[in-house]
Design a protein that fits this description.
- The protein has 217 residues and is α/β, with parallel strands linked by helices.
- It is built from eleven helices and eight strands.
- 53% of the residues lie in helices and 17% in strands.
- It starts with a strand and ends in a 5-residue tail after the last helix.
């Protein structure tokens, strides 16, 4: 499973990247706002730091404008993935941009039907939003499972990018189902390391080692 980091915070990306935990990055207008930086500037900096795909999102609702914006964003770096919404216009933009050889991430997916359309439009990634489905009392993992089954049935090459990840359990369950990628905030990825028994074991080892009176090196 690939780990994408859902943030435009360059320092947070660098920390995870130094640990070998970054296969790509996803951004959106809300994350750009939170970063408080120029979209081209911060996106270029992220692309220089990370070798994998970096999603940069278009903002226009019209297909022709999405295509224009996507081409502009793609000029920032070779590893840019143009992110478009799962609308009729977004699918047209996806088709055009993917036919031009650009990576495209189709975002805001909430149904298997939408995911089929994205695959047929040539999407590199489909981003089903797990957490937002959970918010309305639906199981986001059911959607991941449905998309996985359909894509496997027909050999679609579009990668399932589980998004709106809120918990470690989301990541584990998406991995069990077979999502190709997850994208999560840095805090969620870092929290994967935590377990009370690990802490308890380390505390015991530390106490026992101090009792030996020894040093290493």
């Amino acid at each position: 499973m690939k780990f994408f980091v859902d943030t435009a915070d360059v320092a947070a990306i660098k920390e995870l990247n130094d640990h070998g935990m970054v296969d790509g990055v996803t951004t959106n207008p809300s994350l750009i706002l939170k970063a408080g930086r120029d979209i081209a500037e911060v996106t270029r900096e992220i692309c220089e730091l990370v070798e994998g795909p970096v999603s940069a999102e278009v903002v226009s609702p019209d297909a022709d404008d999405m295509i224009r914006e996507g081409r502009h964003l793609a000029k920032i770096a070779d590893n840019i993935t143009v992110k478009v919404p799962l609308t009729w216009d977004g699918l047209k933009a996806c088709r055009v941009l993917s036919d031009e050889g650009r990576m495209v991430n189709v975002t805001l997916c909430f149904s298997a039907a939408q995911a089929i359309l994205a695959a047929k439009a040539g999407a590199t990634f489909i981003s089903p939003f797990i957490g937002r489905l959970d918010d309305i009392h639906l199981d986001g993992m059911d959607l991941i499972a449905d998309i996985r089954e359909i894509y496997d049935n027909y050999g679609y090459k579009t990668q399932i990018l589980a998004a709106s990840i809120r918990t470690v359990n989301h990541i584990v369950e998406a991995a069990k189902i077979g999502a190709d990628v997850i994208t999560a905030p840095p805090s969620v990825i870092k929290s994967m390391v935590s377990h009370p028994l690990t802490d308890k074991g380390l505390a015991q080892f530390d106490a026992d080692w101090k009792a030996t009176g020894q040093k290493i090196g």
